[in-house]
């Protein structure tokens, strides 16, 4: 199964992709995670994209397309994959058509107000990557490894708003582009509630 997770930043694409990856043994390919890892490791790519991510803007299409194209050539993608955060523009979606055939696009629907609240309250552990929310976790340090939690630069309210604008303008046209392949779910509930219909749909598709 070749899948795409579509939805605004903060709609829960990453969480859904992790569930699918574990239940259906598919690699979870998050372009955002790949960029963040490169930034953390101080690679040439990381240095190139850091300021773009911090501002909530999009990395140039060509660079992102090449990255995904190479990643999909790896052996673990033979039986399928889940793309999370790619494609994000029509140019990327059109390029993807040339090197992969997509079976289904899972769209998570969530109002922007809920997303703003979710993302701006998010705190991450810079050491182990665990993610918390200020509404449910009041501590300043990670429960798993005790590192001081941080707010990702791109989770600051101002940047969240910029990211949502970018989504509306550049990414939401993909809903029309993929209209025949979309399976839409409501993202307001708990991760498990959101995932239940997705799991059922994918099991039937298999
Ligand atoms: P994400 O974790 O998916 O929200 O991605 C974090 C950031 O990485 C985005 O705000 C962009 O700056 C960059 N990024 C991730 N995926 C893409 C993509 N497909 N095209 C361009 N930029 C991307």
List the helices and strands and how they pair.
Elements: E1 2-6, H1 13-24, E2 28-30, H2 31-41, H3 44-55, H4 61-72, E3 81-84, H5 90-99, E4 104-109, H6 112-120, E5 122-124, E6 131-133, H7 157-171, H8 173-177, E7 182-186, H9 191-205
Parallel strand pairs: 1-3, 1-4, 2-3, 4-7
Antiparallel strand pairs: 5-6
Helix pairs in contact: 1-9, 2-3, 4-5, 6-7
The structure holds adenosine monophosphate.
Adenosine monophosphate is lined by residues 9, 31-32, 35, 52-53, 56-59, 64, 85-88, 92, 154, 163.
N-to-C series of helices and strands: EHEHHHEHEHEEHHEH
Question: For the largest beta sheet, what order do the strands appear in spatially?
Answer: 2-3-1-4-7
Percentage of residues assigned to helices? 40-55%
The domain tally reads: 1
- What count of helical segments does DSSP give? 9
Structural class label = alpha/beta
CATH top level label? Alpha Beta
Q: How would you name the CATH homologous superfamily?
A: P-loop containing nucleotide triphosphate hydrolases
Strand content: 5-15%
